[in-house]
Design brief:
Layout: H1 2-19, H2 23-40, H3 47-66, H4 72-96
Helix pairs in contact: 1-2, 1-4, 2-3, 3-4
Pfam family, one: DUF7553
Biased composition (Polar residues): 1-10
InterPro entries: DUF7553 (IPR055975)
Length: 97
Amino acid sequence: MDQERLQNASEKLRAASETADGGIQRTLYEQSNSIAELAARSQQIHERQLTEQLDDLQTLIETVEEADDTPEDVNEYLHQAKSDLTAAHGESDSSAH
């Protein structure tokens, strides 16, 4: 289930990158790729990796929210991706116990 949620988060970030413009577009695209690579791994996803992705995504969200010219769709995609990552992180926590 972690992989599915991560893939969903990656797809939402990819959609956000297609909607965004400027420097944030590339950053969103790179974050999407990073999460997709994590989802593609067949091995157990480590909690530390999910925590790093969540931290990076939170930084992106703050950056986008501070920008005046960011389309609202980008914010929505980012928050949906964060929700998926948070859920995957929670599943990772419970499977570790």
